[in-house]
Amino acid sequence: MNIIQQLEREQMDAVLAKRGVPEFGPGDTVKVMVKVIESADADPKDKKKNVVKEPTVRFQAYEGVVIARSGAGLNENFTVRKISYGEGVERVFPVYSPFIAEIEVLRRGKVRRAKLYYLRGRRGKAARIFERTDARARRLNAAWKGFKKPKGEAEDLTQIKGIDIDLQTRLKHLNCYKIEQIANLSDDDIANLDESLNLKGAIEKQDWVGQAQRLLAELTAGEVPAEDAK
After folding, report:
1. Orientation of helix 187-197 relative to helix 165-173, angle to 10°
2. Architecture in CATH for domain 3-141
3. What whole-number distance in Å separates Cα of residue 13 and Cα of residue 11?
4. What is the tens place of the pLDDT at every residue in 178-217?
5. I want to staple 192 with a disulfide (CB 3.0 to 4.6 A). Which of 144, 167, 224, 230 is the partner?
6. Residue 30: its pLDDT value, please?
7. Which of 5-19, 32-46, 66-80 has the highest mean pLDDT?
8. pLDDT of 57-112, one tens digit each?
């Protein structure tokens, strides 16, 4: 591996540490969550001219059919096509772009070509792609997709060392947003999370379960009434 490949590998690993890249190809229907950073321009009517406003980040969903996937390594990209108000719209996304928060495969299509540019000239039923039902598609569809949604509001998981804001968002997509959930993770849960989020054993190395259990113990101790404590 030369130095350029090594640098590219490091950048790819940095992106994979924040989000996963599912297995998908031409013909698959995907939903891409794109980070949109809105500038914090000062309001001309605002009298407080010296107030500095921070830019806001929101997520925009782009859903469509993958018609091409090309390139390799850090330069790999894919083209997603959708119909918007009767017009075909295409957008090219780098697979390892830091501005992509998540890629979700909604449906796996059965196609025989690597490039589906012929869809540009088709409309309605002529542009329909049949769903794959082979063993490989069933295996991919049956892959672990997350926990059952727990009750209550989301808690601050960044109290656990090793979980940052981006990782907390990814965990929330898997319905894991309670400290109690982390404290009660089974071996299978840890394996599923590790594989889905490409954590490379971080849960066990950083002892998320032990940290969560200690946090729960502290919260429980803080809820004990003063009279009972005596």
Report:
1. 110
2. Roll (2.30)
3. 5
4. 999 999 999 999 999 998 888 889 999 999 999 999 999 9
5. 144
6. 95
7. 66-80
8. 888 999 999 999 999 889 999 999 999 998 999 999 999 999 998 899 999 999 99
Confidence of residue 41 (pLDDT cuts 50, 70, 90): low
Dihedral pair phi/psi, residue 126, rounded to 5°: -65, -25
